[in-house]
Design goal:
5-stranded parallel beta sheet, globular, Rossmann fold, 3 domains, 498 residues, alpha/beta
Length: 498
């Protein structure tokens, strides 16, 4: 891909106001940008869909113009990567908030100075060309949210994405099946992101996390607010109107609530608890389960009628052991994301590490793999606490809970050519525990050094209670006169973030 330079920029401006178009033409001329304009919805559609895609779009939102947000929703669905800068009234807070929620990059309030608009455009042009994919460490990783990504490195996941594209075009319920941590929520978010509902809300409700009475209020709302005072409180179904809701662990929902949910699927209406007036709702319902459906139906944990309505189309998300081709992409993606989060330098994975990780079965799926990367980042392949033992693929399969701590040691020992085996499970458990304690001690030491041994400040930096930190300091017998385990800059940024 050819790197974009400022003198090859193409801007599309959607506005009919001379107070917007005039300054933009001047800005474009001064920067040698190519400026195209459209005065309405249809003109914008024609220019975005045909010819060369613009590098940035400037969207004017005049007060009282109902089409502006519709244009934004449509463009975000068609060109989700296209940066959009909005121009609107400074006191139009509701529309500003909604526009930013829908994916606009910036909001310039009028009356504005041309320099303000030029600065916003330049900021997001360069962010688009240089940094939009900072979370994406492989062409196989597709970002579908701030913390959500889809990996299509294996044939089975490319097939799943094709299914998502198909389901995005048809407004039917979908049942998503898969093991815990395999990515069912990611599949649901992908379907939502690719659909016409992407400009509206997406919510996930875990049916196993709430008792039946609270789950009913969470979904359907109530005619009374939290203080028992009369006044409707909307539930997630209403808040996601025109959007998508994912009901995770649907078999854990009570049969009574399942009957009420079935009514929503059949009539697009329901009655709030304590109310009498039907509420109309247009929401797409996706359901997910780790439990096999047949036993759930036979045990009366899932209504057969509800199952037939939800399973218009069923998607099976394969476990990570069936998509081993994705492991390298996932490892690198998690490493870069976690390193940035903790303020550390990302570590590379040697061929031996990648081979060991691809051979492992990952019974905990993506959650286990992310946890492994976190420990690898914190402890590192050269941590002396790891020792020089070796743990082969078969042993890794037999000890899945210890894979996250032991895979690092596996690499170090293989790379060094040391084939000494760890003797017995007791030695292995002790070694795993020592790795965890060493990483924790290092983090505490770095925080204390960074704050000059101000223990309250260190507790805030580590996001633990002051009492917990005092207990840990005593546990590790740490003193202010002790040398730091390693320089604080390795674990925490100097600007105070972590």
């Amino acid at each position: 891909m050819v790197e974009k330079t400022i003198d090859t920029v193409r801007l599309l401006v959607i506005s009919r106001e001379s107070t917007v178009l005039g300054p933009l033409w001047s800005i474009g001329e001064a920067n040698a940008w190519q400026i195209e304009s459209a005065s309405n919805w249809w003109g914008a559609m024609e220019r975005v869909q045909s010819g060369v895609t613009p590098d940035l779009l400037v969207l004017d939102l005049p007060r009282g113009d109902a089409d502006g947000l519709h244009i934004l929703r449509w463009i975000r669905r068609l060109r989700p990567e296209l940066p959009i800068v909005l121009i609107g009234d400074h006191d139009d807070h509701a529309r500003k908030q909604e526009a930013m929620r829908l994916g606009a990059r910036d909001y310039v309030a009028r009356p504005f100075q041309p320099e303000q608009l030029e600065c916003a455009i330049k900021e997001h042009l360069f962010a688009s060309s240089e940094g939009v994919s900072t979370d994406i460490t492989s062409d196989d990783v597709e970002q579908i949210g701030s913390c959500t990504f889809f990996v299509g490195a294996s044939p089975v996941m490319r097939k799943l994405r094709a299914q998502a594209e198909l389901l995005a075009e048809i407004n039917v319920p979908v049942l998503i099946m898969g093991e815990s941590g395999s990515g069912k929520e990611t599949a649901a978010r992908l379907i939502h992101q690719l659909s016409v509902r992407s400009g509206f809300g997406f919510a996930k409700v875990n049916c196993a996390a709430l008792p039946s009475d609270l789950l009913q209020i969470e979904l359907f709302g109530s005619e009374r607010n939290g203080n028992g005072v009369s006044g409707a409180k909307p539930g997630k179904l209403e808040l996601c109107d025109k959007g998508t809701i994912l009901l995770d662990e649907i078999t854990e929902m009570s049969i009574t609530l399942q009957a009420k949910l079935l009514q929503v699927l059949q009539t697009r209406q329901f009655i709030r608890p304590g109310g009498a007036t039907p509420v109309d709702v247009d929401v797409r319902i996706l359901a997910a389960s780790t439990t096999s459906i047949e036993p759930a139906i036979s045990e009366n944990k899932l209504s057969e009628d509800l199952y037939y309505h939800l399973s218009t189309y069923t998607v099976q998300v394969p476990p990570l052991r069936q998509r081993r081709d994705e492991v390298p992409s996932l490892l690198r993606h998690f490493m870069h994301r976690l390193a940035r989060h903790y303020g550390l330098t990302a570590r590379t994975f040697s061929p031996a590490v990648l081979e060991a990780c691809q051979s492992y079965s990952w019974p905990g799926n993506l959650r286990e793999l992310e946890n492994f990367v976190k420990r690898y980042l914190m402890a590192g392949g050269q941590d002396p606490a790891l020792g020089k033992g070796i743990l082969g693929p078969q042993e890794m399969d037999e000890r899945p809970a210890m894979m996250s701590s032991r895979a690092v040691q596996t690499l170090a020992s293989r790379t060094n050519g040391d084939h000494t085996a760890v003797a017995g499970s007791d030695s292995l458990k002790s070694l795993v525990q020592s790795v965890k304690l060493e990483a924790e001690k290092n983090a505490i030491a770095a925080a204390l050094e960074k704050t000059g041994w101000n223990r309250k400040a260190a507790a805030r930096l580590l996001k633990v209670s002051y009492r917990t930190l005092l207990y840990k300091i005593e546990q590790y017998q740490m003193r202010s006169s002790d040398a730091a385990v390693f320089p604080a800059g390795n674990l925490f940024r100097n600007d105070g973030t972590h």
